[in-house]
């Protein structure tokens, strides 16, 4: 149940960021749910493979920053998978990742 709630909240964050940031475009809430699901799956698989060596190299001291950067990379990768979702630039993806992380800590 927690996964579904987190998925719906992340989809809402994506829609909210598309409304606030002019460089982020998303077609509908259904697309936002699919994009949030893909971002979650990418973070759980590929993101973990990228985060682990980076955390080992930095001794886990900047784990939060590593997590933000990897999540932003996964958002940009999800952008390539969907025609109805577009993020122009790395900075908006980093802002979306930051908002997802902040909201995720409160959930």
From TrEMBL:
It comes from the Bacteria. It holds the Pfam family Phage_holin_4_2. The chain crosses the membrane at residues 28-49, 56-77, 89-106. InterPro entries: Phage_holin_4_2. Keywords: Membrane, Transmembrane, Transmembrane helix. The keyword Transmembrane helix applies. PANTHER family: SLR0284 PROTEIN (PTHR37309:SF1). This is Phage holin family protein. It comes from Pedobacter steynii.
